[in-house]
């Protein structure tokens, strides 16, 4: 099949686009649903939001999904978003300020670039249990928006994915209460605890942070059409929903420019799949365990910082089982 070059695209970019996106069958496939019918060239970051026409910001998409994708107008990014506020960093622990927020500051030039040009990686914070990871996750979008700057496409919502229901409820509660209780912010965030697919895809309740379990993200069978586990919050009954995973994920990813995985070592293979389809999202992970048994990271991961036992003992004694004595105080016996 031959494709016609869009009138807005220079000839110098058309050939590289085809070379990058043509599949082994010689066809272009929609990045959302996989169809080969009525394919258009889509800007991952819309041009009205500053997206360019470089190869990294272009993908094939059928006309139906390109038309329904939509984009937020420039005027939206001129509004003050919740994550634009300044944090009271004097109230943050070292693990949250020096080892989360300050790292984004150090790489401000990198994170100020359009998301589509720096994504497709899992940015990893390795922190021990007790380091205050929940508030570290909370501080992250503030740091990113400070790097990006007012008036540009930035973080307006964050999705946190954690391993099970009790932890989901715990993190949602901590996110609602602790930032203001500890004096880090003056205004509490609006937090949505996602308990069903309807909450994830169709819910229009205003919120800044959503917290969910991973069972509604990962396909349980191979192929484009997959079953996803769903939990009916009212009845407490488990069920399976048959969906097109790529289209399902596209709807989710449009809502949340920042996705944070708690304890990434539990599902790093599935997280890697999501990272590769998250075309306009930043994906971060917080974990207390190495991804591999030998402590090495996977190829698609970038280590942002490491906050371990030594740092905890020195900075804030968050490892309470260490007590108040140091090895020097005990004559070097430990």
Spatial strand order of the main sheet: 5-6-4-9-10-3-11
The general outline is globular
Strand content: 15-25%
Number of helical segments with 4 or more residues = 12
Secondary structure: number of strands: 11
Q: What's the CATH first level of the largest domain? A: Alpha Beta
* CATH topology call of the largest domain: Rossmann fold
Fraction of residues in H or I helices: 25-40%
SSE order, one letter for each helix or strand = HEEHHHHHEHEHEHEEEHEHEEH
The CATH architecture of the largest domain: 3-Layer(aba) Sandwich
Whole-number mean pLDDT = 80
- What's the CATH H-level superfamily name of the largest domain? P-loop containing nucleotide triphosphate hydrolases
Any idea what the radius of gyration is? 21 Å
Question: How many structural domains in the coordinates?
Answer: 2
Distance between the termini: 71 Å
Low-confidence stretches: 232-238, 320-334
Give a short account of the largest sheet: 7 strands, parallel
- Summing up helix and strand content along with how strands pair, one would put the structural category as alpha/beta
């Amino acid at each position: 099949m031959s494709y016609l070059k869009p009138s807005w695209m220079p000839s110098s970019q058309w050939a590289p686009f085809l070379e990058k996106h043509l599949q082994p069958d010689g066809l272009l496939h929609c990045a959302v649903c996989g169809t080969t019918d009525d394919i258009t060239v889509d800007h991952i970051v819309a041009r009205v939001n500053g997206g360019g026409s470089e190869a990294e910001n272009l993908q094939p998409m059928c006309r139906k999904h390109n038309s329904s994708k939509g984009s937020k107008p420039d005027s939206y990014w001129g509004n003050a978003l919740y994550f634009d506020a300044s944090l009271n960093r004097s109230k943050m622990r070292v693990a949250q300020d020096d080892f989360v927020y300050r790292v984004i500051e150090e790489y401000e030039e990198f994170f100020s670039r359009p998301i589509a040009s720096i994504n497709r990686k899992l940015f990893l914070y390795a922190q021990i249990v007790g380091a205050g990871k929940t508030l570290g996750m909370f501080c992250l979008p503030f740091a990113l928006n400070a790097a990006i700057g007012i008036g540009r496409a930035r973080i307006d919502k964050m999705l946190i994915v954690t391993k099970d229901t009790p932890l989901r409820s715990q993190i949602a509660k901590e996110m609602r209460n602790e930032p203001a209780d500890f004096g880090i912010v003056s205004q509490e965030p609006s937090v949505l605890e996602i308990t069903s697919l309807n909450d994830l895809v169709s819910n229009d309740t205003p919120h800044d942070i959503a917290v969910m379990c991973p069972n509604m993200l990962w396909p349980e069978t191979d192929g484009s059409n997959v079953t996803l586990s769903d939990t009916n919050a009212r009845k407490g009954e488990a069920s399976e929903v048959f969906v097109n995973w790529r289209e399902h994920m596209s709807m989710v990813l449009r809502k949340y420019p920042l996705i944070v995985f708690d304890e990434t070592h539990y599902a790093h293979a599935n997280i890697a799949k999501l990272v590769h389809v998250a075309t306009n999202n930043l994906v971060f992970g917080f974990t207390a365990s190495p991804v591999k048994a030998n402590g090495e990271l996977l190829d698609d991961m970038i280590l942002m910082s490491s906050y371990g036992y030594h740092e905890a003992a020195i900075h804030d004694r968050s490892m309470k089982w260490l007590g108040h004595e140091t090895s020097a105080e005990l004559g070097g016996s430990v």
